[in-house]
């Protein structure tokens, strides 16, 4: 039997602080539970909540998108019950992510082609209306601390292996190699995000601002921006230490997910890591797909940040995860 749970993270050993949301969802609020977020701003707190936000229970980690910073992976992190830090996404620890996604199976399996969608709770291919969402996969299992990243976000000794930039926000063209503004998973599927050049559109779903969904194009959702998640992370992401049968070079730790889309000349300057592979996606790309081991459980950690575009609760607003296992 296969099952997917949504969890709250927080413990340093990557075990969840809340095993399952049990049919509830996450609510994105202002400075306190139940308070509204200003139109065009992003949330300051995140709680387990009912559909209209009138009832809240456990507090979740809060990761807030910071607009108009370079590069676009900047965020503010306020761990549940902890302090606030200004960091880049590659410096956020996995246990500080907004949400844990856990897949479980009766027998040990591999997972692949894992995809995260933001939708209207009716059709997984339809964008949510009235809210913009930024999403990033968080992988920093080596335990680097928040302050390693630096306030500017332009240099770091914390080499996270998830996303460097937010999906649903224009990626900085200065850091992207040519037209490689996408991540390619192990099945060869390409997931695109828009750039900050000219009239580039981040989310190309034509239903946005076309009488179907209220929203601009800087958001995850619909068919325009779907977020890829890594293969076979294992329980608590421990499986990301097992890069074996799909690696074209020697086994070892995975290469960062962001290495696919960040120009190789910027790997060292921006993230304190030597060039893991050159532009052109050499055979080492196989080590950016995630883990390769069999496990009964696999855990992904994601950062979520939401911004309302008009007044009122956003109840037709959901998160959907699909994957293949073998």
Structure description:
With 326 residues, this protein is an all-beta fold. It has one domain (2-325). Helices cover 2% and strands 29% of the residues. Strands 1-8-14-10 form a four-stranded antiparallel sheet, with no helix packed on it. The chain has a three-stranded antiparallel sheet with strand order 2-3-4, with no helix packed on it. Strands 5-6-7 form a three-stranded antiparallel sheet, with no helix packed on it. Strand 6 (74-78) and strand 7 (84-88) form a beta hairpin. The protein is globular. Residues 142-157 and 245-251 have low confidence and may be disordered.
Features:
single chain, 326 residues, mainly beta, four-stranded antiparallel sheet, 1 helix, 15 strands, 2% helix, globular
SSE layout and pairing:
Layout: E1 2-7, E2 25-29, E3 45-49, E4 56-60, E5 62-65, E6 74-78, E7 84-88, E8 99-109, E9 111-119, E10 131-137, E11 182-184, E12 190-192, E13 227-229, H1 267-271, E14 295-308, E15 318-325
Antiparallel strand pairs: 1-8, 2-3, 3-4, 5-6, 6-7, 8-14, 9-13, 9-15, 10-14, 11-12
């Amino acid at each position: 039997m296969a099952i997917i749970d949504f969890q709250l993270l927080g413990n340093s050993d990557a075990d969840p602080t809340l095993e399952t949301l049990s049919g509830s969802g996450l609510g994105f609020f202002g400075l306190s539970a139940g308070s509204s977020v200003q139109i065009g701003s992003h949330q300051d707190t995140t709680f387990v909540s009912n559909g209209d936000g009138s009832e809240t229970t456990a507090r979740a980690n809060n990761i807030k998108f910071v607009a108009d910073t370079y590069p676009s992976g900047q965020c503010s992190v306020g761990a549940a019950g902890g302090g606030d830090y200004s960091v880049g996404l590659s410096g956020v620890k996995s246990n500080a992510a907004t949400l844990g996604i856990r897949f479980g199976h009766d027998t040990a399996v591999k997972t692949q082609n894992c995809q995260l969608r933001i939708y209207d709770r009716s059709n997984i291919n339809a964008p949510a209306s009235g809210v913009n969402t930024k999403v990033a996969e968080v992988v920093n299992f080596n335990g680097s601390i928040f302050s390693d990243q630096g306030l500017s976000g332009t240099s770091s000794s914390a080499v996270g292996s998830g996303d460097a930039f937010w999906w649903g926000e224009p990626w900085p063209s200065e850091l992207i190699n040519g037209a490689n503004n996408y991540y390619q998973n192990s099945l060869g599927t390409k997931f695109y995000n828009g750039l900050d050049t000219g009239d580039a559109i981040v989310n190309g779903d034509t239903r946005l601002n076309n009488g179907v969904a209220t929203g601009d194009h800087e958001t995850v959702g619909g068919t325009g921006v779907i977020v890829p998640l890594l293969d076979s992370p294992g329980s608590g992401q421990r499986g990301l230490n097992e890069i074996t049968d799909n690696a074209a070079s020697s086994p070892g730790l995975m290469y960062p997910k962001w290495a696919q889309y960040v120009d190789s000349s910027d790997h060292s300057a921006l993230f304190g890591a030597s060039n893991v592979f050159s532009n052109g996606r050499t055979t080492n790309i196989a080590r950016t797909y995630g883990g390769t081991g069999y496990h009964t459980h696999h855990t992904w950690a994601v950062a979520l940040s939401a911004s309302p575009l008009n007044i009122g609760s956003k109840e037709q607003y959901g998160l959907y995860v699909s994957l293949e296992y073998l």
